[in-house]
Amino acid sequence: MRINLSPQVRDDTLEVIKAGNTLTINGETIDLSPMTEGGTLPLAAISSSWFASDVDMVDGEIILTLFLPNSVHSSHEQLFPVPLLNVPDGPVAFPQSLPAPQAMEESQ
Asked: What's the rounded Cα separation, in Å, for the pair 22 and 29?
């Protein structure tokens, strides 16, 4: 599975757990296992607002794009994310935010 990330300014958080071709996004399960080679699942058919575009299956790999929440404390990695390749089962690791200024001051 390849997960592309599309940065978007928003205040909520994104938590994704992958199990095979199923994603649980903030508690909502999206089963992509019925997809076949060369198939496309249109964005309009996906009930989650976290998807930024259609989902495709190319060369046996599911390729999708999720919105990645950004804030004023976003790191360079969040602002300009690279695709997540060969995503293993389990919690998906996303780029992390910079520490809030208050937290940085307290640690000094």
From this structure: 7
Q: CB burial class (10 A; 0-12, 13-18, 19+) of residue 75?
A: middle
In a domain, 47, yes or no: yes
97 within some domain: no
Q: Rounded to whole angstroms, how far apart are CA atoms 51 and 43?
A: 7
Predicted TM-score (pTM) of this structure: 0.87
Q: Please report whether residue 101 resides in a domain.
A: no
Residue type at position 22: T
3-state DSSP assignment of residue 106: helix
Domain count, the chain: 1
- In sequence order, what are the residues at sequence separation of 6 or more whose Cβ sits closer than 8 angstroms to the Cβ of residue 4? 52, 63, 64, 65, 66, 83, 84
Instruction: Dump pLDDT digits (tens) for 20-35.
Output: 999 999 999 999 999 9
Domain that holds residue 83: 2-88
Answer yes or no: are the C-beta atoms of 99 and 73 closer than 8 Å: yes
